[in-house]
Design goal:
This protein has 531 residues and is of the alpha+beta class. The chain folds into three domains: 163 residues, Rossmann fold; 94 residues; 208 residues, D-amino Acid Aminotransferase, Chain A, domain 1. Helix content is 33%, strand content 23%. The strands form three sheets. Strands 9, 10, 11, 12, 13, 14, 15, 16, 17, 18 and 19 form an eleven-stranded antiparallel beta sheet that branches. Strands 3-2-1-4 form a four-stranded parallel beta sheet. α1 packs across α8, α9 packs across α13 and α10 packs across α11. It is globular. The protein starts with 12 loop residues before the first helix and ends in a 22-residue tail after the last helix.
Length: 531
Amino acid sequence: MHASSPFGPLGSPRELEHFARLQARLPAISRAYRAGEAMHTSVVVPSISVDQDELAKIDGSAFYEERLLFTLIRLRNPLSRVIYVTSQPIHGEILEYYLQHLPGIPLSRARNRLMVVCLYDASPRPLTTKILERPRVMERMRRFIGDPARAYLTCYNSTVLERRLAVELGIPLHALDPELLWMGTKSGARRVFAEAGVDFAMGANGVRTRDDVVGALELLGQERPGLRKAVVKLNDSFAGEGNAVFRFPHPLPDDPTDRLLALSRALDDLEWPGGRENLGSFLGKLASMGGVVEEWIEGDEKESPSVQLRVHPDRTLEVVSTHDQVLGGSTGQVYLGCRFPADERYRAPILAAGQAIGRVLARHGVLGRFGIDFVVTRQPDGSWKAWAIEINLRMGGTTPPFMALEFLGGGRLDPGSGLYLAADGKPKYYYATDNLKSPAYRGLLPEDLLDLMVEYGIHFKQLSLNGVLFFMIGALSQYGKLGITSIGDSAEGAEALYETTVDILDRTVGATQDTFGRPRSLFEPDVPRMV
């Protein structure tokens, strides 16, 4: 943190007073830029300001700063300017790849309204911290911003760091006040669900010790006889990486003391996704941040959809999208990708529950984008029941692919049906992941990927509004990992295009397994070019 800041330490009365004055400007700025009536500057800081130990569990997390490059859609408005800040350089061809998709805007004109700031600092700390340590960088940003009354700050997630950066730059933060972050913790979300009157998993909030966990498990066992599994979640984890699965010993002893002892012993066998956690470390994090214990919701037919919403500065609530999440990992809780939109069989009930939760959040003053995760199970009468599971008060894994659709489709979401209608009035579907990876992809440069797009015809085609858009391309060479959004005229078409694209990548680099780990023959016929 820059020591000579006139606002004193983080969270000082002077900072909070100035922040409140800046936030009061946001509704007028929002109305002007949404109507395209005035020049404005969007400052995009894709800092993942979360527990860095939890973030380190994700391969290539440093390149997640590229996921918000879809915010360059704002340059489609000729009155807009964008500052985009990163820790490490973005390859020039990656930037051009995004800018060339802006409809009707010459690339050079868009580039002139874009300021890319690289800090050349790969240390494992939040990007916002790095900016705050560099007063000269902030001064250059202020000069590009010009009139601060026509600028705002966009971030991946809002914390006290982003609040301080907004104050230092003299512009409002287009995200929630960090004082409201408690509603996005696992414990806080359960309180919000109760206030909204929606169904959610039985469990206990605010657990911090091993004894707390054992006590909560005993109560669950009594309330749900025969329950096989429960989940212990860290309050501030994400992407399922802070969730541990507990398996109940059966039969549980009748004697209360013996029962507690059996549950405590079974806690030694907690399961984590990825195998990068241990009980001692997990309990240490639980003590510092708290967590919850919840029943594992069972069902012969069970899915994990989500709803994304947005509260505008005028406090209106907007449905952004619905998704079916693709989950994996050893415990089946790690976010791998998504399908848009969520299945029509249960889209209506999760939309209704999502809006009820969104209204509570808006009442409390939440601002910006957020997502709500659900579990749905099919009931004996054929209907689907939805349980709210988590609130993510930030942009998430489903944000970049939907931004891609907005970036390219030029349409809107129909709130009644939950379908996205492109500029031509036709509904669009996609299959997306930010976790497409293979050891065989390592060494591929952005230029190689762009060449393959053209060679095999898998690039996005503006005429049909179908095709593939890649993101997080910078992680490809080192980690063999990238993101992909495959857009089609049907759910089946989008997924088929995704599978074809992955097949092209695998065969081109000579992968001996497909992305599901199945053996692949290197002597099978070449993949045909797509037209």
